[in-house]
Design a protein that fits this description.
The complex is a heterodimer of chains A (about 425) and B (about 550). Chain A has 17 helices and one strand. Chain A is mainly α. Chain A has three domains: about 45 residues, no CATH class; about 190 residues, no CATH class; about 130 residues, no CATH class. The longest helix of chain A is centred in the first third of the chain and has 34 residues. Chain A is globular, with a radius of gyration of 23 Å. Chain B has about 550 residues and is of the alpha/beta class. Among the domains of chain B are: about 80 residues, no CATH class; about 70 residues, OB fold (Dihydrolipoamide Acetyltransferase, E2P), CATH 2.40.50; about 140 residues, 3-Layer(aba) Sandwich (Rossmann fold), CATH 3.40.50; about 80 residues, no CATH class. Helices cover about 30% and strands about 15% of the residues of chain B. In chain B, the strands form four sheets. Chain B has a seven-stranded mixed β-sheet. In chain B, strands 2-17-16-20-18-19 form a six-stranded mixed β-sheet. In chain B, helix 1 runs antiparallel to helix 2 and helix 13 runs antiparallel to helix 14. The chains are: A mainly alpha (about 425), B alpha/beta (about 550). Chains A and B meet through strand 1, helix 3, helix 13 and helix 17 of A and helix 2, strand 21, helix 12, helix 13 and helix 14 of B. Strand 1 of chain A pairs antiparallel with strand 21 of chain B, so a sheet runs across the interface.
Chain lengths: ~425, ~550
């Protein structure tokens, strides 16, 4: 108990320095579960609280983080034709991934949490846990080469306009993480669309372009030299002949499923050693995370299942139509490509922006599956649809709930 | 039920076999087309079958066949496949409902053994136990007066016909006032041997509703009639549609109601007979269908509709039982009573006296000897618990841990309380308690390993385990409430003061105890019960 007393002694005054107090409170409640007791109503409470809930979503994403970081490095070297095996050049790939990933993570959190803390202090309430999950999701859905200032602006936009303007955690209409991504998508499309953005460490993907390494790479090089292992070689690392950097979706758009399987094998797409947004590629880890969320009852299985069904049905309909090669991509192809599973596990299931009724959740998930697949296949400019489909259905979730509740109400009033 | 189980494999194999037929039809891209046609044909067949099924059921209903008992349809009902089978003791014409939703909060320190008689010196009757009563009722006794059990103590000036009477005989020692001179409690120093006011009850076989009503109003038992909507003392001018009595409790550390009925079977039946005269509808008895056979006093009761319920808490709550048998709709008014109240009413007729002796449980991990105690309504808490509590910092609760009131040894049991729960006051900090809890704690969340130990009994403490937040998680309340109600949206309607929506979303069907388990599981630590009461008060004053 000694430590608690010491910590309590340094608590800043709430009136004199509200920001410091909010900051203190945020970290104190992180370190210690508060001593508040029930008053009126129930005398005992479930052990679950919002902190615990949020942290379990973050835990479910941890393996995607590890894999995503490593895959940044892996794709970097695959583009230059070096270390083609997945675990060849392990230290180089990991270090390159970290050098790309850490700044993205840090910038996201400094900007996002900073705004969150500032608003909490202004409003005089405790720091709410919402950004724990948003902050963990945002780096995973960005391309590895995203300029940090764009990231900062996007996060600020999402947190201020998307969340705080509506009243903070639990009040927002749109998924905060997706709002950050959609901001980049519309404001700076060249940084998030096209073939060139999914591989990091090169200025362009034209044949022969040399890798451009940073000061950090240099520091690690001296360490690697000391350890007498392979180092980053700027001069000999350049884009190989015929490398396009295209993702499976871009390939499918150009020439259907055969065009995809010419470049990537199905197992490659399944295990995730392909270019793409940082966290979306490795399907087993995402499925594992989704199962973790379902088993711990943190996320709604109804949304996940109905979204899967919606996506599959839409794929079958498009298959039957078959007007373009992309429409003929089989169901397993559509599931393995792009971020279908990632969106299903972590994005659509956000309880605040999804439908609040169980019936509504079935409709909500199903519509995301249908619309997302439709946008992915039919949109000529950008072959992916989950971000837009989820934001679209976020907008309509209150309407779905409204009709579900109306049905419930009319059942009660009808017999009156 | 058995027919349903036999039909299921047939329907299942039909659907399953059809898979082969179109898996083998053609190759390449055309199999998709055949597949789609196959699915379409299946849907068509299904539609025809469903139509036929419905027609048979409608015809059956016209001919007066009970479709709940006799399964007429072609398809097995989904509910009949997954739901629990009705136990053997459920008789003909009695309904059985089994709920999958709910949560049993298992606590250590259950009261067991023989009923102990404990002498208590002081008793109290409190106006605050009756929701909606004006704060200063007319007290007809003064300090120093001698009263008998059944003598009038006070009445509400707004509803002067309803008398509130003394639970025991003795001397009025104090009329205690609270804030703004409101009457807090009338305290009675009890005689060693309770003497009763002599009451001549009307003969039930030869009386009318009005006589009976006035008899109940004068003799203090009207206060035991709880009315839904609002869960208040019943309105004397309204004839209730039905009367509901739950004969078991699923609340944490609740009494086994079989103890209550032992030896009181005759009085209970008499009480039911009297209640039958108060309503134009029927008296519904909610019986325990969870396993063990209910006591004969409940099972063999006459002149009532019997409904069996199985499931976790709140299956024993009368509100849940009403919702699943004959829900409150529109302007319906129903009454609810406790088993011990019915026995008290019966004793007016069988013994001619107002006997509010109550069997209560004193339970919880912090009670040295959890015990079942026989006392009277409104007994002093201190007398009941003295010398039986552990030395830790405790919270004494009059009622169960989900719905009870926090109380002290100086205070008294409430009008409806039949339980004292004692748990530890959890006002300590816990390092990383939200992430890595050290002590076991009850939860519906799968993030705790609780599901590995389904029969573990928790000690119970009052820590909130987190801070209050806005509504974030959805579907959580619905997962523990076996009612077709959306509590979270109802709460939002109450907060917004939207009367039409509140009514539409079912506020009239609810009382605080029904939402208590939802409040327990709430991740955002919302005070659902107090929000609901706010809404009920709004509805009541507006009506």
């Amino acid at each position: 108990m000694g430590l608690v007393d010491l910590l309590k002694k340094i608590e800043p005054d709430k009136k004199k320095s509200p920001f410091l107090h909010t900051l203190y409170d945020g970290f104190f409640t992180f370190a210690y579960a508060p001593n508040t007791v029930t008053k009126g109503g129930v005398h005992m409470r479930d052990g679950m609280d919002l902190k615990r809930l949020m942290v379990h979503v973050v835990l479910a994403m941890q393996l995607c983080y590890l894999f995503g970081t490593y895959n940044i490095g892996h794709q970097h070297f695959v583009a230059s034709g070096q270390y083609m095996g997945f675990i060849e050049g392990f230290h180089l790939k990991l270090v390159h991934g970290l050098i790309q990933m850490l700044p993205i993570f840090v910038v996201t959190h400094i900007v996002g949490l900073g705004i969150e803390f500032w608003f909490a202090a202004k409003k005089g309430h405790a720091i709410e846990e919402g950004f724990l999950v948003s902050g963990a999701l945002i780096p995973l859905i960005m391309p590895p080469d995203i300029p940090l200032w764009i990231l900062a602006v996007a996060v600020a936009f999402a947190v201020i306009i998307g969340k705080e303007a509506f009243g903070g955690t639990g009040m927002n209409i749109w998924n905060v993480a997706l709002l950050a991504r959609v901001f980049v998508f519309f404001a700076y499309p060249t940084t998030i669309a096209g073939d060139e953005v999914w591989v990091s460490g090169y200025n362009t993907l034209a044949e022969g372009t040399q890798a451009s390494y940073t000061f950090a790479h240099g520091l690690f090089n001296s360490l690697f030299e000391f350890m007498d292992i392979a180092t980053f070689q700027e001069a000999s690392t350049h884009i190989v002949d015929g490398y396009s950097g295209a993702t499976p979706l871009a390939l499918a758009y150009q020439g259907g499923w055969e065009n995809v399987t010419d470049t990537f094998s199905t197992s490659q797409m399944f295990w995730g050693t392909i270019p793409g947004s940082i966290g979306e590629s490795c399907k087993p880890l995402i499925i594992g995370g989704a199962l973790f969320l379902v088993i711990t009852k943190v996320a709604s299985w109804r949304i996940m299942l109905s979204m899967l069904i919606g996506g599959i049905i839409m794929t079958l309909l498009l298959n039957a139509w078959g007007a373009t090669p992309f429409m003929e991509v089989p169901v397993h192809g559509q599931i393995f490509m792009g971020s279908f599973l990632f969106a299903m596990a972590f994005m659509a299931t956000d309880p605040v922006t999804a439908s609040g009724t169980n019936t509504g959740k079935w409709i909500y998930g199903f519509m995301i599956g249908m619309i997302g697949m439709l946008v992915r296949v039919l949109n000529p400019a950008y072959p992916e649809g989950w971000m837009l489909a989820i934001l679209f259905m976020n907008t309509f979730a209150p309407l779905i709930d409204h009709y579900v509740l109306e049905a419930n109400m009319s059942k009660r009033m009808k017999h009156a | 039920m058995n027919i349903a189980r036999r039909k299921f494999p047939i329907v299942f194999s039909l659907v399953f076999l059809s898979q082969f037929s179109y898996a083998q039809s053609g190759s390449g891209s055309s199999y998709l087309i055949y597949g789609l046609i196959g699915v379409g044909l299946l849907l068509l067949v299904f539609a025809v079958l469903t139509l036929a099924d419905n027609l048979i059921q409608i015809e059956g209903k016209k001919m007066g066949v009970d479709t709940n008992k006799n399964d007429l349809g072609i398809f097995p009902k989904v509910s009949s496949i997954f739901s629990q089978k009705a136990p053997n003791f459920v008789g003909n014409g009695e309904s059985f409902h089994s709920f999958s939703k709910g949560f049993d909060l298992k606590l250590a320190g259950e009261a067991t053994g023989e009923i102990k008689e404990v002498h208590t010196n002081r008793y109290a009757l409190r106006p605050t136990d009756f929701i909606g009563m004006s704060p200063i009722p007319k007290v007809v006794v003064a300090a120093g007066d001698e009263v008998k059990a059944g003598d009038v103590i006070f009445f509400d000036k707004k509803r002067p016909n309803i008398m509130y009477v003394s639970p025991v005989s003795g001397e009025i020692v104090e009329v205690k006032r609270g804030a703004k001179r409101a009457i807090a409690e009338v305290i009675i120093l009890a005689d060693k041997e309770v003497s009763y006011k002599e009451i001549t009850a009307p003969d039930l076989s030869n009386t009318d509703r009005d006589t009976l009503k006035n008899f109940f109003l004068e003799n203090g038992v009207w206060a035991m009639f709880n009315q839904r909507p609002f869960d208040i003392v019943a309105d004397e001018d309204v004839i209730p549609r039905d009367i509901f009595i739950s004969t078991f409790s699923t609340a944490p550390l609740a009494l086994d109601y079989r103890l209550l009925i032992e030896g009181n079977e005759v009085a209970f039946q008499k009480g039911l007979d009297a209640l039958n005269m108060m309503t134009d509808g029927s008296v519904h008895l909610g019986l325990d269908g969870r396993g063990g056979e209910p006591a004969d006093g409940f099972k063999l009761a006459k002149g009532v509709k019997k409904n069996y319920f199985a499931g976790k808490h709140p299956a024993g709550n009368v509100g849940v039982q009403i919702h699943n048998t004959a829900p409150i709709k529109g302007s319906d008014v129903v009454w609810t009573l406790d088993v011990q109240d019915v026995i008290t009413i019966g004793k007016l007729f069988t013994e001619g006296r107002y006997d509010v002796s109550r069997v209560i449980s004193l339970a919880g991990a912090q009670v040295k000897n959890p015990s079942i105690i026989k006392t009277y309504q409104g007994a002093n808490i201190g007398d009941l618990v003295s010398g039986n509590l552990s030395d830790e910092k405790l919270r004494i609760i009059a009622g169960d841990v989900l719905t009870g009131k926090q109380t002290t040894e100086d205070e008294f049991l409430g009008f409806d309380d039949t339980q004292i729960s004692v748990i530890r006051e959890g006002d300590d900090y816990e390092a990383f308690g939200w992430l890595l809890p050290i002590t076991p704690r009850p939860s519906i969340s799968g993030t705790f390993p609780n599901f590995l130990y389904p029969n573990f009994k928790f000690e119970g403490e009052t820590n909130t385990h987190g801070e209050k937040r806005a509504f974030v998680v959805s579907g959580q309340y619905e997962s523990v409430l076996p009612m077709d109600i959306y509590p979270q949206h109802l709460m939002k309607a109450i907060m917004a003061g939207d009367f039409e929506r509140m009514e539409g979303l079912g506020i009239n069907e609810l009382s605080e105890e029904d939402l208590a388990v939802c409040e327990f599981v709430c991740t955002s630590k919302m005070p659902l019960q107090s929000i609901l009461r706010e809404g009920l008060d709004m509805m009541r004053t507006q009506a």
